[in-house]
Amino acid sequence: MSSNTQEPKEYNIPISWESYKRVKVEANSLQEAVEKALKIFLAEPDELYLDDSFEIDPFIKEETGEDFDMEQVYNNI
User: Fold this and answer.
1) I want to staple 36 with a disulfide (CB 3.0 to 4.6 A). Which of 2, 24, 25, 26 is the partner?
2) Model pTM?
3) pLDDT tens digits for 20-51?
4) For the stretch 5-36, what's the b/e string if a residue is b when 16 or more beta carbons lie within 10 angstroms of its beta carbon?
5) Are 50 and 16 in contact (CB under 8 A)?
6) Is residue 18 in a domain?
7) Main-chain dihedrals φ then ψ at residue 5, nearest 5 degrees
């Protein structure tokens, strides 16, 4: 009788996910608020965070009736 049993292989399966939260800040404009919130978000340690994978929900523009410039946010933080 021959034994054809193989040892199981080890697999390292990449899994990505999103999470959603709101960061409360006090500011004089949506631009300033987004900058403050992003600074807080990026300062929170999370070893699973993928660099540059965050996104500011564009709904905030409708919710506040204000606009912001994401490029300016990057330059200011």
Assistant:
1) 25
2) 0.66
3) 889 999 999 999 999 999 999 888 877 777 77
4) eeeeeeeeeeeeeeeeeeeeeeeeebbebbbb
5) yes
6) no
7) -75, 130
Q: How far apart are CA 21 and CA 19, in angstroms?
A: 7
What is 19-53 written as a DSSP string?
Answer: ---------SSHHHHHHHHHHHHHHS--TTPPTT-
- Give the structural domain span for 40: 24-44+56-77
Q: How far is CA 66 from CA 10, 11, 33, 50, 52, in A?
A: 51, 47, 11, 29, 24
Q: Specify the residue for token string 């709904």.
A: 59
Structure tokens at 26: 């006090």
- What is the count of structural domains for the chain? 1
